[in-house]
Write a structure and sequence with these properties.
The chain is an alpha+beta fold. It has helices spanning 2-10, 15-46, 52-66, 84-103, 139-150, 175-178; strands at 70-74, 109-117, 120-127, 154-160, 164-172. A five-stranded mixed β-sheet has the order 1-2-3-5-4, with helices on one face.
């Protein structure tokens, strides 16, 4: 509504301003529709009982269908489950990484890799978005950092303007997870 009001204020004589405001209005509408589609896909997904890498695979499928993103998922040699609490953490890491790449980085491609690393599992999420000079951690990344710290894990985020962002996490596996057992 505010964009329409700005268009009315621009008047018929300022054609360049009107065109610019119309592009902003149209892009805003497109962005809002994309966010709504994404949220609907996630909401449908969150009612499913999958855990571990199966849940991450389904989440990636939901984002892939609901957005313009091209997402490549490589599960590597990671166990199918890391344990209930760590499965939830891994799910939230991937969910937050994809969401941030879409919302803040305006990425078109994302690569997600899960693999064993030492006595734990590593998850790396790399996008081709806008990157950043100084990382700004919102509530989502702060929450992930807190959860990972509680289970003895780590999180690193690196970005470079114009070259995208890399979110890397590591968390230790307990004995059952280290053997690949759920």
């Amino acid at each position: 509504m505010m964009m329409e009001a700005a268009l009315d204020l621009a008047g018929p004589r300022d054609n360049q301003l009107r065109q610019h405001l119309e592009r902003i209005r149209d892009q805003t509408k497109e962005g809002l529709l994309e966010v709504r589609r994404t949220l609907q896909a996630i909401r449908r997904f969150e009612s499913t009982p999958e855990t571990g890498l199966t849940a991450i695979f389904r989440l990636v499928q939901s984002f892939d269908r609901a957005t313009h993103l091209r997402i490549r998922l490589h599960l590597g040699d990671a166990p199918m489950s890391f344990g209930a609490e760590k499965d939830r953490i891994a799910f939230r890491v991937v969910q937050e990484g994809i969401s941030n790449a879409l919302r803040h980085g305006r990425a078109t491609e994302i690569g997600i890799q899960c693999s064993r690393q030492g006595a734990g599992v590593a998850i790396a999420i790399v996008d081709n978005g806008t990157g950043f000079d100084v990382p700004a951690e919102g509530f989502g990344l702060v929450g992930i950092r807190e959860r990972l710290t509680q289970v003895g894990g780590t999180v690193e985020i690196h970005g470079e303007p114009g070259l995208g962002t890399r979110l890397s996490v590591w968390m230790p596996l307990d004995e059952a997870g280290a053997k690949g057992e759920p």
